[in-house]
Amino acid sequence: PFSSSGRRKMNLKSERRGIHVDQSELLCKKGCGYYGNPAWQGFCSKCWREEYHKARQKQIQEDWELAERLQREEEEAYASSQSSTQGAQSLTFSKFEEKKTNEKTRKVTTVKKFFTASSRAGAKKAELQEAKAPSPSIHRQASIETDRVSKEFIEFIRTYQKPGQDIYKQCKLFLDTMSHKRDLSIEEQSECAQDFYQNVADRLQTRWKVPPEKVEKAMDEVEKYIMTRQYKYVFCPETTDDEKKDLAVQKRIRALHWVTPQMLCVPVSEEIPEVSDMVVKAITDIIEMDSKRVPRDKLACITKCSKHIFNAIKITKNEPASADDFLPTLIYIVLKGNPPRLQSNIQYITRFCNPSRLMTGEDGYYFTNLCCAVAFIEKLDAQSLNLSQEDFDRFMTGQTSPKKQESDTFSPDVCLGVKQMCKSLDLLSQLNERQERIVSEAKKLEKDLIDWTDGITKEVEEIVEKYPLEIKPKSQALAAIDSENVENDKLPPPLQPQVYAG
């Protein structure tokens, strides 16, 4: 509580300004006797923290209850769908992709319920009912990923010292500005983002004299920080027709499930285990693109997918791949993978990616090829596949399939498991033949090595027999000069030492 002198000083200051202040209005609304701050809705700091803590615990409890209820609904829906579709399962790739897409869409919808305004209608209604008593405003905390990216961005800009402080101020100002421009069209927001990238890069180069390589790295971090926070507002917004385009492309790819690699002239043989692994990795990368938030990370997924394609072509052809081989293979990968929200991801990258990265380098090249692949799929016709219009129409309607017909071997009543088993037996027989061929070649190689060894040994023996080795006796050693061979050498006898008696 304030002392009498402190209240007197407050009254004197107010009287000087011509304002009459009632001391009861200065006290905390909770009645603790401390001064209440108008910014905290009339509470003192201690009471405001208590109220905030109570409201926050209540909100957490409501979120937990909502999560448990949604989890139960999810399990019940999944159990019912499993029981209803258990007798009609299909092993084809298109059915598997459709089931996976539906499962992912259902999970995404469930997660979105936590963050949409409709899911919190009950909580907000309860808060409005309790609005008679003042309560602090509560905002949902940012997601874990957003917090992580923010911490990484702050740690990064600390290495730039004063330029880093300037970057952080510019980013905060941009985020505050964009929060008041939600009603703008997505094209106008894209222009704001592109102008912001250009201004920050120019500011680093002209004002702070930062080297180009450090500018590029700083712009990558700026893009990561900005777009992680703006992702839920600018990715596939409701004001655009991106979602309709996604559904149209997905439906188109499903209708083209019958397209074979031979029709697209794809130089990839999936019978080779290494090539098959590369194809699976490429499909995984192109599907993983939808889970990223930053345009640069989405471009990285496209780049990894493209490199796996190049490796698959190189292994198949035993030579480096060319651009003419890459684009048909990329089209085949897109048809086989059917990535979710493909058009939305392309539009998001085009609108909000750093232009210096998108217009240059291998990321920009691979992204351009992906756009060409999607455009080709949208306009794919009979002439593109060297088919007649009648065959193309029959394939699109599902009347017939260009794939290998199995009616000669199996009856229509045979289940897919038996067909797959027979295919596996055929593959095992082929592998057995290949193994026997390898074993015979190995035995032949062993025989050749033995024959070569015997031949070399025989040749050496013939040469030794033709040119025998003669070992001559040792020559007689010369006599020593001081030997006693007087007759032959006519030399006097050696001197004998003489002893003199002294």
Number of strands: 0
| Biggest sheet descriptor | none
Average pLDDT level: 79
**Tell me, what is the CATH class of the domain at 241-397?**
Mainly Alpha
- One letter per element, helices H and strands E, the order comes to HHHHHHHHHHHHHHHHHHH
Can you walk through the features of this model?
This protein is mostly helical and 502 residues long. Among the domains are: 146-234, Serum Albumin, Chain A, Domain 1 (Orthogonal Bundle), CATH 1.10.246; 241-397, VPS9 domain (Glutathione S-transferase Yfyf (Class Pi), Chain A, domain 2, Up-down Bundle), CATH 1.20.1050.80; 419-451. Helices cover 66% and strands 0% of the residues. It has helices spanning 4-16, 23-26, 45-85, 93-112, 121-129, 144-158, 162-179, 186-207, 212-234, 242-255, 273-288, 295-317, 323-337, 342-352, 355-358, 361-378, 389-397, 416-466, 486-489. The chain is extended, with a radius of gyration of 42 Å. Residues 243-386 form the VPS9 domain. InterPro entries: DUF5601, VPS9, Vps9-like, VPS9_dom_sf, Znf_A20. GO terms for molecular function: DNA binding; guanyl-nucleotide exchange factor activity; small GTPase binding; zinc ion binding.
